[in-house]
Amino acid sequence: MSGALPKLPPRRPDSHKGDYGRALLIGGSWGMAGAIALSGMACLRSGAGLVRLAIPSSILGTVAGFEPSYMTLPLTSSASTGQINGSAAQRELTEHLRSATAITIGPGMGQNGDLTQLVLWVYRTATQPVVVDADALNALASLPDGLAEAGGPRILTPHPGEYWRLSKLPGGARRRDELAASARQTAKRYGLIIVLKGNETLIADGVRNVINTTGNPGMATGGSGDVLTGIITALVCQGLSPFDAAVLGAHVHGLAGDLAAAELGQVSLIASDLVRYLPKAFQAVSDYA
Known about the structure:
Elements: E1 22-26, H1 33-45, E2 50-56, H2 60-66, E3 71-75, H3 86-99, E4 102-105, H4 113-125, E5 130-132, H5 134-141, E6 154-156, H6 160-167, H7 176-190, E7 193-196, E8 202-204, E9 209-211, H8 224-237, H9 242-264, H10 271-285
Parallel strand pairs: 1-2, 1-4, 2-3, 4-5, 5-6, 6-7
Antiparallel strand pairs: 7-8, 8-9
Helix pairs in contact: 1-2, 1-8, 1-10, 3-4, 5-6, 6-7, 8-9, 8-10, 9-10
């Protein structure tokens, strides 16, 4: 990565958890409880002061069992799919959206028309930075102009397939250079930050373009993107600008993967290893840890 890497400021001796932000992460469904749990654990390990996971009531016990340090908020869920009831969730989330420092939506959430409306409501209503990932990206992609009218700073974290659907590029336009050029244009058009994941992840905001070079093929495993989402959310909670949070988040995410692969090998690396190696990654980029 060229240029100076963004850094978190040192923590004041008299600081408390409220000084490091309130993260609200929305997602999860039957069979995908691990996705939102990974995001929550990564958010904690990346320094957010308070982390709350808003999840279907049907998976509350499973998600809560992964980690005692985050809070859980049960949302009304469908008895047939185990997904969040999007209409009810808008009422249940209103006060929590207002008090959050940064918001994530999408990991493990699943897809249906009701959830698409929930995603659009968060995207257009929340004034705080929102990290949009996974099923929330697909929800926006299903709409004619889903990226329009963002209510505040938005960080989108698509892998190439998700970006291709978001951008509505023609079927043959899947080369990395084509996707990267389009991502830069989309970021500029809508005033977004786009983190186009993959080998040499691109972070673009329409003016600045940064290429991240940390990471390795061992990170091509389910849940790796959920970890990145949690990291970026935590960095925004601690006061970094959304763009700087995306740049530092991508670097630390890849570095955690490199540290894990050096000890475990690329073949055996899994997403939860990234969470376990985040402390060493942050120590490596910090002047005070």
